[in-house]
Structures are given as structure tokens and as C-alpha cells.
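Issue: ligand-bound run for zinc ion - logging full I/O for the record.

Environment: standard queue, default settings, no custom constraints.

Inputs:
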Amino acid sequence: MRILKLIPTVKDYIWGGTRLSKEFDMPAYGDRQAEAWVLSCHDDGVNIISGGPFDGRTLKDVLSNEGKSYLGTNCAKFDFFPILIKLIDAKDNLSIQVHPSDEYALKNENQYGKTEAWYIIDCDEGAEIIYGLSKDMTKDELKESIENGTILDNVNHVKVKKGDLFFIPSGTIHAICKGILLAEVQQNSNVTYRVYDYGRLQNGKPRELHTKKAVDVINLKAVDCGGKNPGKPETFDGYTKTHLSKCELFTVAKLEITEKATVTADETSFVSLIALDGNGVVNYADNCITLYKGESVFIPAGFGDVEILGAVTVLETRV
Ligand code: ZN
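Outputs:
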């Protein structure tokens, strides 16, 4: 069994900034880096393994060879690798969008649907997200509002701050707006139905909208702001741990390590570690692997204890 260091896949969508390359040392292929897929088996951006005996192979390939035990017993019920983790730098507004449920997506897109969680790493003063409808609507009212460009008047605009956590169930209309840098833990899916794109052009043309499918899947009930303060930090020797999100799909925590922390990968799930700030190293047996800001490490289920040393803030995700 091996701990895997993953090379992120970077996307240059039109709304991206440059913080991912400048601050997180992500590869910069163009002049902007909107998303870095830091844990991905998705064909639209699968991770490559860096170093060790699997160097240069894809995560997907290695996991299919090593078998389901690498993923853990909680993953047995999934046909595909269940999650996808991204760092997102929204210099500009993302389109207003929705993701379908598993039921709809498996039927219509041959992919999972997408429930997601956002952890706000950093944001500008006054930055906001769009989260859910602000009033109950019928399908016809929703369709009309999308078509006549008034959808912005019918959604919740929610101010965010550093350290906030938002849980976005599939079917919730949403958008990340400008000035937000966040980590997104989501189901392994790339199905997005876009309903409003601020009249922007890409290569001289507006990006496609998917109004019909969006109206099929958007939750028509008004929702309260999904803003959720993360749990209370628990203090341990050498680090604090804050629970961020727990659902039947994933469990996410933040480890703020000042000296060291022990992380255990038991038989139930692999553990994904992503360094959000600072630099550390992961020690195990007689090996050592870096965990510098922006780096992503995959620990197979059943691996046992690893020690993280350094001053580093880590996003820890399990299934
Ligand atoms: Zn989304």
C-alpha cells in the first residue's frame, strides 16, 4: 500500500483569477486558473500521480488496479470513485447554475448528480454567494424568470466570510460570486445546468444555457441561507480539528496543525489531505512526503496512522 501524491488538473474557465498559481503553486497553462482539481478520478480532469512506483500513472488507473480495498468499505456502494475536490478562485462571478440529483443525472447524463460543500478559504470584504430561491415559485414562473433575465431578483444573496462552510444539496440553485477563494468537496460529477451568465461572451459567443433541464431539477421552494458555522474546534496536542461537513457522501474536517497531528486511515475510507496554508510533511514507516500549500495526498483505506509534521492547515476528507 502506498500513499499517493497527486498532481492537480487546472481549468482556465473565463471567471478565474491567478491566486491558484501565485499562492498555491498550481501549474499555470494560461493567464488564469479558475479551478484546480486536487482529488479527481473524473475523465474531464483526472489526477496524475507524482513520485513512487506509480509515478506518471493516473489515479483512476491505479485505483482500478489496486482494487476497492484502497477506497474502503464505505465506498463499496458506489460504482465510480465517489468524490471530487477542487480549489476555486472566483475573480469574477460564476454562472448561476444547478446540479441534478443522482436519480436524474444517472438517468439522463450517465454520471452522478452533485451535492457539494464549500469551505471559504479567503474572500474580499462584502463577497457573496447565491444560495437557493428566495421565494416559492412554480416551474412556469421559474422558467419565465430565467428567460427574461430576472432570476437574480429571485435568489438569496448571502454574504460570506473566511472560514464559513456552505452545504449545497443537488437541486439548489447557486453561484459562487466574485472575490471568493474556496475549497469545494463534491460528488464526482461534472454535470452543471447553467441558467444565467451575466451576458458574458466567450470567444465572441454567450456560453450555452440549459434552461429546460435546470427547471426540471431546481428546488422550487424558498430556502433559508445555507450558511453554517463549522463545528467548534477541538484542541489536541499539536493541532486543532474543526468538523466542517458531514453527510452520507463525505465527511470533511479542517486540521490546523502547529506542530504535529496523527491521521488514521482505517478500513472504512481512504483519507484525502489537502494543504490549504503553510507547509508540512507526512511521515509514515520510514518514508516522508511533502504536504506544501496546495499539495494533495491520498492515503489508502486501511493504511493506519500517519504523522503530519509542520505548521500547516489541512482539509481532511473521508467518505
Ligand atoms: Zn456548482
